[in-house]
Design a protein that fits this description.
13 helices; mainly alpha; Mitochondrial carrier fold; 295 residues; elongated
């Protein structure tokens, strides 16, 4: 009936470990998948950013969409093997279903069954996720433009909520195409065929089945993924001529007006020193005292 009903039945019939079916292929495939996705987004985003560090909304969406498309070569085989293992408990059989058995049965071509639906899910997801994440980072940055671990995690989790939920219809279609239909169950020949049959037999609400479960899985998953990615970038940053991620450095005033004191009797020594020493704590691990300049 819903996510809670599904979870309770899995635990009742298969035990707690039934909730972790398909974990191994997920662990094996998620590393290259996320590596490609994050790299492509940063690469395209950097190319479309102006010399002033500005990027239009369409460019943010395009960078995210390119990232989503690039990961399907890893995502689709991973998804179909994971799904086959997850539903194996529903089939009354003494033979234990393993990942390698599923791969041999499907073959190379079979591993990419439902790839069109996978594109329809992953491209919009990333096109929504990465621009939302970037804007949330700016919103939650401190007065110096710096993002700490807390604001990074919060931004990534918030961005995952609309991205995960809005692509639920594509995920439902992909799952229907990739799961092995049993005797008496409806079979689907493609994306449009699945759309027509689901709409006719189950109604429009069927396209949103599992939406909350997707949010509860994807939002924290991408939250910790992006947090880890950002921290590793700061620790092991290599300059290839691009730009550092926003929020990774304290914003240093560069205009004369920014360092000019608001007090006519004050020569602005603190503000000049601020421009000189800002960012030292992120570079050398120093913690400098903060002072408020009275107006």
């Amino acid at each position: 009936r819903n996510s809670w009903d599904c979870a309770s039945k899995v635990i009742r019939h298969e035990g707690l470990f039934g909730l972790y079916r398909g974990l191994l292929p997920q662990l094996v495939g998620v590393c290259p998948e996320k590596a490609i996705k994050l790299t492509v987004n940063d690469l395209v985003r950097d190319k479309l950013t102006s010399g002033k560090g500005e990027i239009p909304a369409w460019a943010e969406i395009m960078a995210g969409g390119c990232a989503g498309a690039s990961q399907v070569m890893f995502t689709n085989p991973l998804e179909i093997v994971k799904i086959r293992l997850q539903v194996a408990g529903e089939i009354a059989s003494t033979a234990k279903v393993r990942a390698w058995t599923v791969i041999k049965d499907l073959g190379i071509r079979g591993l990419y069954k439902g790839s069109r639906a996978c594109f329809l899910r992953d491209i919009p997801f990333s096109a929504i996720y990465f621009p939302t994440y970037a804007h949330c980072k700016l919103k939650f940055a401190d007065e110096m433009g710096h993002n700490g671990p807390g604001s990074l995690l919060l931004s990534a989790v918030i961005a995952g909520v609309p991205a995960a939920y809005l692509v639920t219809p594509a995920d439902v279609i992909k799952t229907r195409l990739q799961v092995a239909a049993r005797q008496g169950q409806t079979t689907y020949s493609g994306v449009m065929d699945a759309c027509r049959k689901i709409w006719k037999e189950e109604g429009g609400q069927a396209f949103w089945k599992g939406g909350p479960a997707r949010v509860f899985r994807s939002a924290p998953q991408f939250g910790f993924t992006l947090l880890t990615y950002e921290i590793l970038q700061r620790l092991f940053y290599i300059d290839f001529g691009g730009r550092r991620p926003t929020g990774s450095q304290v914003k240093v005033p560069v205009q004369a007006g920014e360092i000019k004191s608001s007090n006519p009797d004050h020569i602005g020594g603190y503000r000049i020193a601020l421009a000189t020493f800002s960012g030292m704590e992120t570079k050398f691990g120093l913690v400098l005292p903060r002072y408020n300049v009275s107006a």
